[in-house]
């Protein structure tokens, strides 16, 4: 049985499974991967995130998916769609985001996966997708540009008030 909801050339996108916990915990615990987030996540916090993603998928039909490299079935991280409701003049909104293991950086996988997720969003009838990243996160901003998103504005993220180094974010959007 095919475990994937959809695939790209090199990647398979699926819902989260209990066997993902160890690998995803390792990714979420990596200081460099988590540089533009509030903090690295513990095993318990990673499990809670996976649970939230499962609920989001059940409720909305999308989430930040578990992503495997098709060739090896290795979990490389997460790429997908989220539902953002934090306080801002552009929420609620559908967001595209990613977090992948350092091992897979600079190989075009995030861009490839994000393009596949935009196509999935289009098939789901989603008309606009936003993406946000701390203004210092040039790698993620570069992916946003590569997948055809346009800079909309910069803003102070309401959930990052206690994290001034990452609070100022760039917001990108694309119409589907």
Automatic annotation (TrEMBL):
GO molecular function, one term: acyltransferase activity, transferring groups other than amino-acyl groups
Segments forming domain N-acetyltransferase: 11-170
Pfam families registered for this protein in UniProt: Acetyltransf_3 (PF13302)
Gene3D superfamilies in alphabetical order: 3.40.630.30
Superkingdom of this protein's organism: Bacteria
Record-linked InterPro entries: Acyl_CoA_acyltransferase, GNAT_dom, N-acetyltransferase
Transmembrane stretches, start-end: none
PANTHER family, per the entry: GNAT FAMILY, PUTATIVE (AFU_ORTHOLOGUE AFUA_3G00765)-RELATED-RELATED, N-ACETYLTRANSFERASE DOMAIN-CONTAINING PROTEIN
Name of this chain's protein: N-acetyltransferase
